[in-house]
Amino acid sequence: RLCEQSCKRCDHDGEGLAIASLHRYATDRNQIAEGRVEPVAGEATGKSVGIVGAGPAGLTAAFYLRQKGHACTLYDAHPLPGGMLRYGIPEYRLPRPALDEEIRVIERLGAKFRMNTRWGSEFSLTELRESHDAVFIGIGAQLTQGVRCKGEEAALSGIEFLRKVADGDAPDLGRRVIIIGGGNTAMDASRTALRLGAEVSVYYRRTRNEMPCLLEEVEGAEEEGIRFEFLVAPVRLIPGENGDGQRLVCQRMKLGEPDLSGRRRPVPIPDSEFAVDCDTVIAAVGQSVDTSLAESEGLEVTGWGMKVDQQTLATNLPGVFAGGDAVIGADVAVRAVAAGRVAATSIDQLLAGRRVTGPE
Question: pTM here?
Fold first, then answer.
């Protein structure tokens, strides 16, 4: 609901139109209505689209492409569709029944799902291009970044932790848990760990003002009793005394000049190291896109993900489009939804034999 922050109603009466809540209300009412309204598939065109990734970008692309009459098959490595909506966002924020019902709408439109099917092992991009008239790549940012300190391999990945919880296989965290990071994944991991019974602290190397997560998530975490330590960076992670738990050695920081992100760079304060004992350290400092497969199959990439035309989301390979985290790196789900819709427009133009220009 990014539009709410710059809504013109803010200038008039202090707050934006509650578009997210209004959409949710309409959808909730429609889902329980006897004469519920659903989109219908368009007349079959005889064309098919292979979609890599059944997350928000891929699901959205299928949603719109089926309404144009194009056959769609989604290929995904997970057991169930949803991508990061299912495996990266905790259920307390996105109830699974709501997600499942949205996916069932796409299934009823006629989209086909091939789950537990991984790009690079069960299929190649070349094979998809041979068996489909167009391909959309909507993979997420599944690679986790380390905390860049000695002993970082002993930390639990934030994304992996959330995925395990989503699968019903929550790890034993112990009583004291430290989350390293200040993004939405860090907030999700901290509030999920709290719900598993842990005492949770979040360590972030900048201040509250520089946190990239949604402010409401920070406020929610504070209200629930999660403790925040700002201007702190990990130096090394070692076993605790007598091999019991873990000991995180940290260093105090101060803010220096802005870096490439526009945020002031954290600078270490000399002789400020301190140690904290805990049972589990969870690293949630960011995710990135695995572009190795894309490069090996001839796709051009950037420092963030796959290189595309910004207006059409077309890649350098004819008939292949990409969007969402696959292009811009880890971001909020609504941008991936937007990319799926843009890609569907461009692919429909291609399959109809029109000039590919993307949406107006």
Answer: 0.91
